[in-house]
Amino acid sequence: MSTIGYINISLELFGGLLSLIFILCLSLGSPKKEELEHLYIRVLSINTAVLFSDAAAWLFKGHPDGFSFWMVRIANFLVFTFGYILLAVFTDYLVCFISAKGIGISRAPSRLMWTLTLAAIVLVVISQYNHMYYLIDSQNIYRRQRWFWISQMAGIICMLINGTILIRYRKYLSKKELTGLAAYIVLPVMAMLVQAFVYGIAVLYIATTVSALCIYISIQVEQSRKFSQEELELEKSRTSCCPKSTPIFSTTPCPLSRACARPTPGRQNWP
C-alpha cells in the first residue's frame, strides 16, 4: 500500500473515533433529549459508518484472498450508499433545527432529499453490474470509471439544496449557528470538487467530520447558554417567592422575665 493509502486510513479512523466520542458525549448528557439531538446523533452515526467503510476499502484493496475480495466490494458500496443517506439525514436535522426556532418550514425539502437519495442509491446498485461509477479489477483494486462524476454531482446537488434552505432562513439564525451549519455544506462541497479531479486523496469525509465538529461546538455553546439562562430564571423565582421576613426574636424585654429576675423577699440568695 502507498503512503497516501496509510495516511487516508489513519485520518479516516481518527475521524470515525472522533465521531464516536461526540456520540458518547451527547448520549451521556441529559437523559431527556430533544428530537434535534437525536437527529444529530444519527448524523454522527452515519458519518462514523462512512469513515470506517472507506478505511476498510483502503485497507483491503489489492489483497487477492477471498475475504478481501468481498470486503473491498462491500466497503465501497457502503461508502457510496451511506454518503447519500448522510446528506438526507442532515437535511432532516437542518429542517428540524430551523423549525425549533418557531419558524414554519415545510417538510418538502426533506422529502425531496430522500427521493434524490433513493434515486442515487439505485444508480449505485446499477453500477455494480454495468460499472459506470467504478470497477474492482482482477487485482482487487478500486478503479474509477467514466461516469464517476455523476455520483459526485448528485452529492453536490443535494448540498446545494441544503445551502438554499440555509440561505433562505439565515436571518432567523445567530452568527454562530449559521457558521456551524454553513461549514457542513461548504467544506464537503469543496472536498467533492477536489476529490472529483484529484484521485487518491480521501478528503471528503474528513471535511464532513470537521464540519460535524463545528456543529458539535455550536450545540455545546447553545446548551451552556440555555443552562445559564435556566439558572438565572431559577434564582429570580427563588428571590420573588421569598419576601423579606420580619425578625423572629423580639428585642422588647418580656415582663415575665423581669418578674423572674426580681429577688424573692425573705429568700436568701445563693452566693
How would you briefly describe this protein structure?
This protein is mostly helical and 271 residues long.
Characteristics of this structure?
single chain, 271 residues, mainly alpha, two-stranded antiparallel ribbon, 8 helices, 2 strands, elongated, disordered C terminus
Structure, explained:
By secondary structure, the chain is mainly α. Helix content is 73%, strand content 2%. A two-stranded antiparallel ribbon has the order 1-2. Strand 1 and strand 2 form a beta hairpin. Residues 256-261 and 266-271 have low confidence and may be disordered.
- Contiguous low-pLDDT stretches (5 residues minimum) are 256-261, 266-271
> How many DSSP H or I helices?
8
The geometry reads as elongated
Mean pLDDT: 79
Q: Characterize the main sheet.
A: 2 strands, antiparallel
Helix content: over 70%
If strands are numbered along the chain, what order do they take across the biggest sheet? 1-2
What structural class do helix, strand and pairing data support? mainly alpha
What is the H-and-E element order? HHHHEEHHHH
The N- to C-terminal Cα distance equals 105 Å
Using the CA coordinates, give the radius of gyration. Answer: 32 Å
Q: What is the tally of beta strands?
A: 2
- As a percent range, the share of strand residues is under 5%
